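Aim 2, interim progress: modelling of the coenzyme A-bound target.
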Amino acid sequence: MPGDTITQNTAEPVPERSKAAALAPIRIAPPGAEDAAEVHALIAACPPLDTNSLYANLIQCTHFARTCAVARINGRVVGWISGHLPPGRDDTFFLWQVAVHPDARGLGLAKLMLADILARPEQAKVRQMETSITRENDASWGLFRGLARWLGAPLRDAPWFDRDRHLAGRHPSEFLVTIGPFRAPPGNV
Ligand SMILES: CC(C)(COP(=O)(O)OP(=O)(O)OC[C@H]1O[C@@H](n2cnc3c(N)ncnc32)[C@H](O)[C@@H]1OP(=O)(O)O)[C@@H](O)C(=O)NCCC(=O)NCCS
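Predicted structure of the complex, ligand included:
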């Protein structure tokens, strides 16, 4: 059921460090306030992600819970997606951050979490997704190109938040990445 998914891992090859995790079921669900501190720690363990305040994560875990997801293995939070529907644009899911703990990478958790979010009734009208990526983040580009293939939709990018104009010279420029249009996420993840 969307929003409370238990996924038994497949026998696909996974990196050595993930083999123990692959034996346990993955549980994916919308977050609650009690998850925020663990989510905050996970983001801190996943450079180059910026941490936000714990209070910001608490707001995501409450007001924006239906467009966010946590993934747990053996009860421990190992994956996180935060996102929202931009005001007035209920056809677009904006993915803010995706984080998978180094111990749980290579299991396809990001795609499983996104599939869970897109399958919820609140996202019934979503036909495209957006995110922003810096040019340097190879893992992120690899992930979103894979997601575009999975969704069967084109990916395009354009300059968005500029290092000097918007980010006070302190952070590399962010490119707005759009994947879509797509009809509905494929059933097979
Ligand atoms: C990005 C991240 C969430 C990917 O998680 P993951 O578990 O490693 O991803 P998966 O193993 O499921 O791989 C998903 C896809 O990304 C690709 N990918 C993953 N790491 C990659 C890397 N370092 N370089 C290039 N591609 C990479 C995989 O090849 C795969 O592609 P496919 O779908 O075509 O097979 C994880 O590496 C992470 O948390 N990184 C730190 C935080 C971050 O940069 N988040 C993104 C910005 S918001």
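DSSP finds five helices and eight strands in the chain. The mean pLDDT is 90.
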